[in-house]
Amino acid sequence: MPAGRTCLPTWISGIGAVTGYGWGTKHLWDGVVLGESAVVRQPAGFESVRGDDVWLSLISDEGDPADGPSRFSQALHAAAREAVEDARQRGWRPGGTIGLIHAFVLSDVHLWRDFYDRPSRRVPRRRYIQLMPSTPVTSIMIEHGFHGPCMSVVAMCASGNAALLTAKMWLDAGIADDVLVVATDVSATPENVRHFVDLGVIVVDRPPFDACRPFQEGSVGFTGGEASVGLMVSGRPDGGYTMLRGGAMSHDAHHVISLAADPEHIGASYRRALDNSGVAREEVVYFNAHGPGTRQCDTAESQLFDELFPDAAGIFSFKPLVGHCQAAAAAVEVAISCLAYEENLIPAPLAVAPGHDRLVSGLVPRQPGPTIKSSIGMGGYNTAILLDEPSA
Questions:
Q1: Any idea of the CA torsion for 25, 30, 36, 39, to the nearest 10 degrees?
Q2: Other beta carbons within 10 Å of 382
Q3: What stretches of the chain show up as alpha helix (H) in DSSP?
Q4: Each residue of 102-120: pLDDT tens digit?
Q5: Which among 56, 46, 79 is positioned nearest to 319, based on CA atoms?
Q6: How many angstroms separate the CA atoms of 163 and 146, rounded?
Q7: How far apart are CA 40 and CA 63, in angstroms?
Q8: SS3 for 205?
Q9: Cα–Cα nearest to 169, from 365, 354, 380, 2
Q10: How confident is the model over 42-85, as pLDDT tens digits?
Q11: Alpha-carbon distance 213 to 222, whole Å?
Q12: In angstroms, what CA-CA distances link 47 with 189, 194, 202?
């Protein structure tokens, strides 16, 4: 987004969530408020990753088979449906043109694994069509009678923020009146987890608060998670949890995994997000960081937080609670932030070691004002959005 261009007001008016806490937004909020991590010891199925305990936050097998043959399609449908129903209950009424953006990194890995495991690689035509990432998205459009623009967004772990910013651009341009954003990642299969372990970024051999401690001493990386999150984004304030004031996206163009030593492009995305949103850095109250608990990312974000937001009340990341949900990583934290604005509470993870002097620790009353949400994707994707009071 060009610097100097101020966006029109936009609101997030409905939320749906399927996470390791359970099927439904209430389970997500109750879990983070209690401070209990959804990252738990998995009893079986990951022996190829490690011979002993594996800690992950996985979506349970409780979906409706009518929504598709896999947890991926069922979770996507459930999160989308809950977001639409929640928005309606809060007073939102559909505009003339409703679009849909689906954020994902890997599509239905379980169905594709089943396909390639078949000796003949042959399945019925209907089963093959279900492998296409377009099928569950098209099914949502059919279910709700939406006829606006429809597309998918892939920006690695920054996909949720990227989808929200794309939705906002549609609204600003008059392409749509409302946009349902859904971010889904149900890819924590043994083979995928094993390769992330080999890359040295995911930690599966210890409990979450031993492994992932964003902006604290002793953090060794992130724990893995799955989620599907729906967010109804509207150009009208009816039912708004928060105002989405704007944001920015950029790319490091440096390395396929590692961050650059100088986080200039991450910082540039933060500055452009402020400019795009019409928010002065002095107004920012909270920094909801990407915060995966890795040394590179936490160092970059804490450095920029101190440089750009010296007067902000605090920095936090929800990843020790929900796990790192890849394509849904940003969206699940945005959903929690929406509820934080609603309930005037921030359910941050409890600090377990010495760390940043402005780290938010545990459940605390929320101070009013803007929150900048950072999300950084493997390969150099940088995104930032500005959330604010719904009546700001």
A1: -10
A2: 28
A3: 25-34, 71-89, 109-117, 125-131, 134-144, 159-173, 190-199, 208-211, 264-277, 295-308, 319-322, 329-343
A4: 999 998 999 888 888 888 8
A5: 56
A6: 18
A7: 20
A8: coil
A9: 2
A10: 987 787 776 677 999 999 999 999 999 999 999 999 999 999 99
A11: 8
A12: 11, 10, 16
For tokens 């932030």, what's the residue? 337
Size of the chain, expressed as the number of residues it contains: 392
| DSSP per position, 81-107 | HHHHHHHHHTT----S-EEEEEE-SS-
Report CA dihedral (91, 331, 268, 106) to the nearest 10 degrees: -140
The pair of three-digit structure tokens given for residue 360, joined into one six-digit string:
């938010």
What's the DSSP call for residue 59? -
Distance CA 224, CA 278 (A): 35
**Which pairing describes strands 363-365 and 345-347: parallel, antiparallel, or unpaired?**
antiparallel
Q: Cα separation of 324 and 315, whole Å?
A: 17
CB–CB of 172/45 below 8 Å?
no
Q: CA torsion 131→198→249→319, rounded to 10°?
A: 90
Element spanning 384, H or E? strand 381-388
Long-range Cβ contacts of 256-264 (<8 Å, 24+ apart): 256/378, 256/379, 257/199, 257/201, 257/378, 257/379, 258/296, 259/296, 259/297, 259/300, 259/376, 259/380, 260/380, 263/300, 263/301, 263/303, 263/304
Cα(351)–Cα(34) distance, integer angstroms = 14
- Summarised one tens digit per residue, pLDDT across range 352-363 is 999 999 999 999
Inter-helix orientation angle 134-144/71-89, to 10°: 30
**Mean pLDDT lowest among 103-117, 175-189, 331-345:** 103-117
What is the per-residue DSSP string for 265-331?
A: HHHHHHHHHHHHHT--GGG--EEE----S-HHHHHHHHHHHHHH-TT-SEEE--HHHH-B-GGGHHH
Picking from 44, 77, 43, 39, the residue whose alpha carbon sits closest to that of residue 59 is: 39
Number of C-alpha atoms within 13 angstroms, CB side, residue 254?
A: 18
DSSP 8-state code for residue 237 = -
What six digits make up the tokens of 95? Answer: 């505009």
